[in-house]
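Blackboard transcription, Thursday session:
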Amino acid sequence: MEKELKVAALRNGTVIDHIPADKLFQVVSVLRLKYYNHPITIGNNFDSKRMGTKGIIKISDRFLEVNEASKIALIAPNARINIIKEYQVVEKRTLILGDEIYDVMHCANPVCITNHQPVPTKFLVIRDGNQIRLKCCYCEREVKQDEVKIKKN
Amino acid sequence: MNQSLVSITDYSKEEILSILSSARDFEANPNRKTLDGKVIATLFFEPSTRTRLSFETAVMRLGGSVIGFSDAATSSSAKGETLNDTIHMVSCYADAIVMRHPLEGAARYASEVSPVPIINAGDGANQHPSQTLLDLYSIQKTQGTLENLNICLVGDLKYGRTVHSLIQAMSHFNPSFKFIAPEELKMPEEYKTFCKNNNIPFTESCDLTDNFNDADILYMTRVQKERFQDLMEYERVKNVYTLKNEMLSNSKPNLKILHPLPRVNEIDMDVDKNEKAYYFKQAQNGLYVRQAIISKVLNIAINE
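(Written on the board underneath:)
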């Protein structure tokens, strides 16, 4: 009920719901909301039947770009994205990580070229059962999803 | 899309076999004029005498010319030039670029920005495909086949790029592996998963003695000081495995000992006289394999 009210309060923009409570501030950080001038509502530790506690972010007048959605997909793959127009949910999205992600995260390998020269990173998404690994297209090293360091801009 | 060779996984089984077949032709006649008028750049941002001389000799024996540098301190990168700019500049002069770089992924990046083919001569601890192809050539030549061989890899299996690439390349030929390494330098999980996913049987051990009697190939590697973050760890493990001649008495008659060189103390000098020692011939094979690689990336027919 509470969620409905909050969603309805947003006229145009994006609601990111079902963010694990311990990932909320990481999502806030990678979306650079600190520097965003329109209204933002950030809530955390709400009760959730599905996940215990959850966080929610409502951003006015902003619709996520593909690489922003990829960032959220890496941090909180089960988050839900609702696009709001004129107080109505016009689109509900589940996050799907593409097969290749471009310039979204840092390579964990300190001697990878992407950490030393102005080279945008590129990773292949490898699905191995339930686990996702990301393979750097340059240095060919793999990282696990929970070890990922997301770029902040 | 140019024809760069960055990683051994860039080549299919057929391409690998075709390189080995060309290398055989070059071994029969290494002096040709097929690169007449061509200029090949050798950019060594990190010193490597052996690999550089091998590539340069390969070019010169085919009648081509070489430009480049053998030390980043004397190149424009010392002034802060990006790799992107260096590659663009050199590609104005050269038909192909052979490069070694200390940063991993440097060759892949160069191949994306370069209008001419890049041949990776080593990018940090990542890939060194010409070494892998000469290893395959040496294995095929000494065993008569690449199929169904039992290969024992010894030494630094954690940081040793040659062994990682060898596993990837041999995966086309139904091998079985034995990994012998100290605990600190064990084969990374990622390559063991690769073996499992490709149905390649392997066993692991920490003990070199009497452990390779069923092997067809004994591939020794050097524990490289420069790959260690922690020098204490290097001191602990550097002298763990030394192959001695008497250890070979129960090995198979067709066994050959390979080593990417340079060796330090992992193979005793007394092994050199044993006919199973193949590492110096292996280095010589590198010349023919590199002639084959250069010809392939430039689309040059090998017959005059």
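Lecturer's comment: The two ends of chain B are 27 Å apart (CA to CA).
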